[in-house]
Amino acid sequence: MSEQTGNLTFGIIKPDAVCGGKTGAIIQRVTDGGFKVRGMKLIHMTLQEAEGFYAVHRERPFFPELTTFMSSGPCVVLTLEKDGAVKAWRDLMGATDPAKADEGTIRKEFGGSLGENAVHGSDSEENAAIEISYFFSRLEIV
Q1: Contacts from 131-139 at CB under 8 Å and sequence distance 24+?
Q2: Structure pTM?
Q3: How confident is the model over 59-101, as pLDDT tens digits?
């Protein structure tokens, strides 16, 4: 596996998309976008796990709604590889608000609202490393 800076990022297919039966279509979009899936798990976060993962947003007004939503059902966590992975994944995801996302992006196609927008992605290489290690051990990234 190539682990040079910039080649790995983290993504989540959120509970709204998993429960809506969109997992396969989103994974297809990921691979069609040139990403290699290096780690993938179906999980159901507890509220405490969601609060830990989103701790950076603890003081924000949307934190309780976000963590309740993220622990409301199963999601798929992903370690993705591609040159310039963080930017490439964020470009493929689209704007946080699906109504403002560009045509052809995952959030435009699969997101329902600002809060339930189908996917999550790391916003920096540093956060990608932190987020990957939150859900994956070294043995689970192939």
Answers
A1: 131/10, 131/53, 132/8, 132/10, 132/39, 132/79, 134/52, 134/53, 135/10, 135/39, 135/41, 135/43, 135/77, 136/39, 136/41, 136/77, 136/79
A2: 0.94
A3: 999 999 999 999 999 999 999 999 999 999 999 999 999 999 9
The pLDDT value given to residue 3: 47
User: Which residue ranges form the domains of the chain, and what is each CATH number?
Assistant: 8-140 (3.30.70.141)
Q: How large a percentage of the chain has pLDDT more than 70? A: 96
Distance (Å, rounded) from C-alpha 113 to C-alpha 9? 24
Q: Which of 120, 121, 128, 136 is catalytic?
A: 120
Query: 120 catalytic, yes or no?
Result: yes
Going by C-alpha positions, the residue among 48, 97, 47 that lies closest to residue 73 is 47
